[in-house]
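Hi team,

Below is the intake form for Probable 2-phosphosulfolactate phosphatase from Enterocloster bolteae. Please confirm the fields before the structure is written into the shared record.

FORM ID: S-0412
PROTEIN: Probable 2-phosphosulfolactate phosphatase
ORGANISM: Enterocloster bolteae
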Amino acid sequence: MLYNGKNNKPTINKQQVKRIGRKNSMEIRILELIEGAKKAEGLTVIIDVFRAFSLECYLYARGASAVFPAGSVEEARHMKQVHPEYLLIGERWGRRCEGFDYGNSPSQTRDADLSGKKIVHTTSAGTQGIVNAVHAEEILTGSLVNARAVADYISRRQPETVSLVAMGNGGERTAREDVICARYIKCLLEGRPCLIDEEIRSLKTAGGEHFFNPHTQEIYPQEDFWLCTKHDIFPFVLRVEKRDDGSLESVKIDSGEGRDAES
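The structure came back. Fields below:
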């Protein structure tokens, strides 16, 4: 059930009405990759730490007015044709898509003038998870930078089922950073002590090595590693809503506690 951008309200069926006011015991599932997104149900969090959904948070923090996730490069280009003022940001296998304004990099967009800009964003993993989560009732994006805000939002919603989808590398291979993020959100939801600083530090040599390779800095700048592994710095979530024209928008919703981030 994707939210309608006009009234910002979901369609509620009779079965859902019966559940209103009853505190549910949440079933929290951790799934992985494209296949996991296809199986996701309930309130679904599509997680991509390196770098899609970390980047989207930074884009909003830097003044973007809207971010539209797209499943394909062709869809992104079509949106640009219809709306020439849109910026195109995205990658395939790490590399900036041909003709796009920026790659999928929070550091390389740091100095861009994003105030009031509308952005189309497509990636190899994160946005693929969104378009494949066809059974989800509600979709959030997730990353370490806003993990606690995501958990706070879910705690207030109290859905019966929560699917945390760690998208991995290209949606095909497990990525430690996404699994760490999924486990962290689950831990927060369960009210358990959540110590992840050591796990995050370990990503430097086990999951994020490519950010420290001098030969790949053009594609994977070292600064992206540090920007994407900050945790709980943004106090908002990004909820995916369907627009009237059928396209999708990651809508910023202030939520819970968070520390201000230097953008």
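SUMMARY LINE: Residues 22-247 form a domain with the putative 2-phosphosulfolactate phosphatase fold (CATH 3.90.1560.10).

Thanks, M.
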